[in-house]
Design brief:
- By secondary structure, the chain is of the alpha/beta class.
- The chain is globular.
- The protein contains 12 helices and 20 strands.
- A hairpin with a 3-residue loop joins strand 10 and strand 11.
- Helix 1 crosses helix 3.
Length: about 400
């Protein structure tokens, strides 16, 4: 049996062929929206032009002398270019001079992006013409007050002082804010490191959209004065399949059930081997193992394979990173996250091993088996027949049997 494992998002989108022994029972479980067709440029433009709960950009931006377009960084596979082109056209229609439109990468606690990475996100045409910046969480942030949870909000000055503010990002299941998207592009995206640190201490939960964590990011977006948020859902090829334009919270709340169904994934129980793959957040490998119920499927003594394949390697993170063995590293480093005791061996399958940084993403420092080639893992596993659960998009799983009241929106 051969499976093409999704890989290299934003870097050629080239899958990796995996061959399994004939006697193995391999259950491949993808999310429901993986096969949805991509929106055309005309469809993207039409949705941007007709937002909900906010006025169209061509009206709301009238009289504004400049504008900033905030976008998610290289650690996310979101193709920003097609959406950004529609936003630029709307801003020009409103009378904002083309030369006064700039872009800000919402890197949060990650490193700054390079020009080459700007091109992968925005396209050569946009980077060739417009000013594109990376947010700096250490400097040039403005204090705007405290949220209802008493979190001090310090945000990027360039964005605070811009006449019109639009943000573009993607929605995924998320353990801190219930789901990604919405105001999360503002906090942590363009917040100071201290604001990011304080926010990470708030109450959170998978699919709990009124948690303290979610409430705080929404309030941060309101304090910034974000005029419009554009959230997208991506199919299994990393293409835009759905687009919601409006305000941060309504993008999520109005489409809450359909977003869950889009990412709905069948949970494969009682397996000898779990292979979970990170595709949409390729440089944050732990995102493929933290989804609710992911490791519960493995029988005692079973093995786990975490796959992530991108030339980016692991993301540089000033909040959670380790930064060497001589000190505590990032401002919220919490030592190593341990694989549950029932797991026998933990494999890391990547063409681009990043030994130092990967340990900061809560993988066991000792006992990991790194493999560049699939054949190396098969050699370790041996010929014994196995029941296998393979999640091609482990970082976007929303397991159907986990959509009970615990994980749904609080009433």
């Amino acid at each position: 049996m051969q499976i093409n494992l999704p890989a290299h998002s934003l870097y050629g989108n080239a899958p990796i062929p995996l061959t399994f022994p004939d006697g193995w029972d391999v259950q491949v479980s993808s999310f429901r929206g993986a096969e949805e067709p991509a929106l055309t440029q005309a469809e993207i433009t039409e949705r941007v032009q007709n937002p909900t709960h906010t006025a169209p950009i061509r009206q709301a931006a009238r009289g504004c002398k400049n504008a900033v377009i905030i976008f998610d960084d290289i650690t996310r596979a979101t193709p920003i270019g097609p959406v950004a082109k529609a936003v630029i056209a709307e801003l020009e229609e409103a009378g904002v001079p083309r030369g006064n439109i700039e872009f800000m990468a919402a890197v949060g606690g990650h490193r700054a992006m390079s020009r080459e990475e700007f091109v992968r996100k925005l396209g050569e045409e946009i980077v060739d013409e417009f000013r594109v910046w990376s947010h700096n969480p250490f400097f040039n942030c403005v204090y705007l007050g405290k949220t209802s949870q008493q979190i001090p909000i310090e945000l990027n000055a360039e964005c605070v002082y811009a006449g019109f503010k639009v943000a573009i990002g993607a929605i995924f299941p998320h353990v801190s804010t219930g789901a990604g998207g919405g105001g999360k592009i503002i906090l942590p995206g363009i917040a100071s490191l201290e604001t990011i640190r304080r926010w990470h201490l708030t109450d959170s939960g998978m699919w709990l959209t009124d948690s303290d964590s979610r409430r705080t990011v929404t309030e941060a977006a309101e304090m910034l004065g974000l005029h419009m948020k554009i959230d997208v859902l991506m199919n299994g090829q990393g293409q835009i399949a759905r687009l919601y334009a409006g305000d941060c919270e309504h993008n999520l709340q109005d489409h809450y059930d359909e977003i869950q169904q889009f990412f709905s994934t069948v949970h494969v129980p009682d397996v000898d081997l779990l292979l979970t793959n990170n595709y949409f957040k390729p440089s944050e490998p732990n995102c493929a193992i933290v989804q609710m119920g992911m490791l519960e499927t493995v029988r005692p003594g079973g093995d786990v394979i975490l796959a992530y394949n991108s030339p980016l390697g692991c993301a540089c993170h000033y909040v959670w990173g380790k930064w060497g063995d001589s000190g505590i590293g990032g401002c919220m480093y919490r030592k190593q996250w341990r694989i549950p005791e029932q797991v026998n061996r933990f494999f890391v399958f990547t063409e681009y091993p990043d030994f130092g940084t990967s340990s900061s993403y809560h993988l066991n420092e000792d006992g990991n088996i790194f493999a560049r080639r699939w054949e190396e893992i098969l050699e370790h596993l041996g010929p014994k027949d196995r029941r296998v659960a393979l999640y091609p998009y482990g970082d976007a799983c929303c397991f159907e049997d986990k959509l009970g009241s615990r994980y749904r929106q609080r009433s």
